[in-house]
Amino acid sequence: MEKNNNSRIKIAVIGPESSGKSKLCEELSRHFLSDWVPEFARTYLEKNPIYQQKDLRYFLKEQIKSEQQFQSSLLFCDTDPVSIKVWSLYKFDSADPYFHKKITTHPYNHRLLLSPNLPYQSDPLRENESLEERREIFDLFKEQLEYYQLHYSVIDGLEEKRIKKAVAVVSNLI
Known about the structure:
The protein has helices at about 20-30, 40-45, 55-70, 80-90, 95-105, 130-145, 160-174, and strands at about 10-15, 35, 75, 110-115, 150-155. The protein is α/β, with parallel strands linked by helices. Strand 4, helix 6 and strand 5 (about 150-155) form a beta-alpha-beta unit.
């Protein structure tokens, strides 16, 4: 498990679009009576849907700021620096070195990497409807997690099976 500078456990819930990250964060926070941090980029893009690569740095800075507002001993985060780097690599074919710095200096105890095996849910902010694209992004996540030697668990299955699997992983961490 990665070291976290304070006594709380931070779990990042990551994965391709339409893999159920927000729903799982909400379910886990309810189950464990803890907090979860929504994805800042989503909130921002709902009001300002056009963005450029340079905006990703701002999204990450604000995401980290949002995490710092919560003091609970167990925190679920609906994105992390790896997610921002993966999106930058996938969409723009490059990534700001700032993302690397934050991956290596802003620790999470564990990451739940969600498989893209849920049915696609249409959303005006989503850009990758095809399962092939979402699997490609999933593989890019795995590649980055392994490159940085980060602790993660793949969460797949549908509905209750997915939630039970995630609850089991988190229960083993606390």
